[in-house]
Amino acid sequence: MKKTLYILLGIALLQACIKKDDAVLPGQQTGSRSLAQILQNNTSFSMFYNAMEHAGLDSMITGNNKYTLLVPGNDVFQAAGYAPDSLQHMDAGILRTYLQNMILRGSISSDSVPQTINYIYHNLNGDSLYFSVPVPGPYQLQAPSINGNAVLHINGATAVRSNILASNGVIHSMDHIIKAPAPSMQAFLAGNPRYTWFVRAMKHFGLWDSLDVNGPMVLVAPTNDAYGKHGMDSLAVEALDTVQYKKWLVGNAIIHTGVFFTTDFKDAPMLSGFYGPAANPPIIITNDYMLVFLSGQVGITPFNYFDILNYPTDPWWGNPYQYGDQATFDDPDHICRNGIVQGTNELMALPEYLHK
User: Fold this and answer.
1) Alpha helices in 67-163 (DSSP H)
2) CA–CA distance, 148 with 143 (Å, rounded to integer)
3) How far is Cα of residue 163 from the mean position of the Cα atoms in its chain?
4) What average pLDDT does this structure show over 247-272?
5) Strand 128-132 relative to strand 145-146, pairing
6) Is 149 in contact with 161 (CB distance < 8 Å)?
7) CA atoms of 112 and 24, how far apart (whole Å)
8) How far apart are CA 161 and CA 151, in angstroms?
9) Can 6-12+181-353 and 35-174 be said to share one CATH topology?
């Protein structure tokens, strides 16, 4: 039976919820200085502004046309391995494309973003950017603002300071660099050495081409370390009999209902259960596995068939086959043109559980 049953306890993280009227409010407040002036006078943004000058984009943010800038601070660039002058030594054309990932037309403040999960805007390169703000509800686990800054997540990154208003737009200071998406999930995995064993497993079980189709979708992918924890390597995976073992043995979950980032679990409220909102996490059930998303520990729960046989009781909080050890997303939020890759440090099911 190939049909997948989806049970969502709590708000649907992968669907739109409540929306405001318009993405850009006509009476939106503005600042007195231009975007260029704000960047020039803030030393923590010097790497971004110097890069804008080198790429020939600085004149664009001095005029009357409005833009939204998703600016990493100097500390964010340096944490990503960039020296203070690295960006200025890049080819100007390549740098221009790189910076345009972080620039959108129009002035998009956090209060003009519809109150939903993963609302799509497009940057100057035409790529989708997913904006999320806390969705209101009686069991929202996150306040709409933290230390006076409105909560705003973009492609899973967090605005450490939002709504820096300029006369010609707005700046959101981000804790990660907004990068271009990979061409596909297949392309991302093929070029990432952390997933070589998973790639071989997908090819061995005939699932590799399913990662090069149109999305949106989410792929939960185990790293090489996840296989190594259980004494497996690529040779062991390729030696598995595809007739005797279910395809899901390779540990992947391809979720076709939309996309999600790890930050979405705080932005979406849960329904209240007997033990409070956290006792009703979103759950996705298929014939082969169950995904449980806990607000305190986002991860995957293996469908442990042995435990189902040993504990033949109704599913309930604490039952090992329903709430087993969580495998966290330790390599999260990799954006591809057909979806998101969420890397996990654990296999979601072991070979002994998945004989046909």
Assistant:
1) 74-79, 92-100
2) 11
3) 22
4) 73
5) unpaired
6) yes
7) 5
8) 9
9) yes
The answer to whether domain 35-174 has CATH 2.30.180.10 is yes
Taken as a whole, the chain contains a residue count of 356
Q: Which two tokens stand for residue 95?
A: 């740098």
Tell which residue, 299, 317, 319, 300, has the closest CA to residue 309: 319
**Domain limits of the chain?**
6-12+181-353, 35-174
Name the fold adopted by 6-12+181-353: FAS1 domain (2.30.180)
40-49, 57-66, 156-165, 229-238: range with lowest mean pLDDT: 229-238
Lowest mean pLDDT of 61-75, 192-206, 324-338, name the range.
Answer: 324-338
How many other C-beta atoms are found inside a 10 Å radius of the C-beta of residue 117? 28
Distance CA 285, CA 154 (A): 28
pLDDT band at 24 (very low <50, low <70, confident <90, very high): very low
Helix or strand (DSSP H, E) at 50? helix 46-54
